[in-house]
Amino acid sequence: MTDLCAFDDLEPGRVMEVPIGRGRTAGVVRLGDSVRVFSSICPHHGGPLARGNVRDVLTADCPGALAIEPGRFVLMCPWHNWEFDLDTGQALFDRRTRMKLYESGVVEGRVVADVGA
Length: 117
Prior knowledge:
Helix content is 0%, strand content 49%. It is mainly beta. It has one domain (2-112): Rieske [2Fe-2S] iron-sulphur domain (Rieske Iron-sulfur Protein). The strands form three sheets. It has a four-stranded antiparallel beta sheet with strand order 2-3-4-8, with no helix packed on it. Strands 1-10-9 form a three-stranded antiparallel beta sheet, with no helix packed on it. The radius of gyration is 14 Å and the shape is globular. The mean pLDDT is 92.
């Protein structure tokens, strides 16, 4: 596991871009008491995911009826507004596409992730 940053340095719901070695970066976002760490490269067209915005997941039971799903969040790529589920990495526009999520957690106040070699 690679030490990425202090948990307390993260502003809830705001992505921080951190270096992960070999010229690569990852996005880190705090969601409540947990974190998500993901590749900063969008799988759609290589956009800067770490510069994207986090928002609540919106659902609808019928046309015109929107509801927020508490505790579920998506990351929106700033280039083409593709949205990715922050729990699964799944793209909402194309079920065949996923962003890279790294196994991560908080250990002794530090954000750590398995970002590979």
